[in-house]
Amino acid sequence: MNGSDFNPSQHLQWEFPTPIIRYRWPDCEQINADLRSSILNAEATADTRFANVIGGWATTKSFLAWDVPCIRELAAHIEWLLETAIAQTARSSNTPGLSNFTMQSWANVLRSGGYHAPHAHPNCYWSGAYYVSVGKTVDSGPFNGQIELFDPRSAVNASLLPGSIFQNKCRIEPKPGLAV
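User: That's the sequence. What structure does it adopt?
Assistant: Structure tokens below.
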């Protein structure tokens, strides 16, 4: 058997992909400045804490519902991005759009050395992050400041082929205006 009859387009089928979007919102400087101000004002007047935020602060999960113009604009941007993602990844034109889902969101502020502990988002079809502002990277490690995404399939790490496409982590360098 020499495999000369193997045709990837005919014999290779993808069933468990994990799509990752990286989209930088153009001309986002003003909205990011407004968002930063709103978030830091909320931090100064609230005592909300998330167990997963180490060395920082986070709002409750209703952030996108706040009646603040810049937050409403961000919510509309995220809804557009999700609708686009759903349309691009749907296997059928009958796949429900965003109107059939609810969104939970929070804003967090991480101080020097702070991080969001690894966590999962149960019962979520899409999870994401939007970067309003990023601090200075402290040169204390090769992945300092990056978001690290893990393959959500529980058994994928059981047998990892070095150098293969079946990696268990994806690291992304945050930039202001970047949605992941």
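Strands lie at 23-24, 53-58, 108-116, 147-150, 169-172, 178-179.
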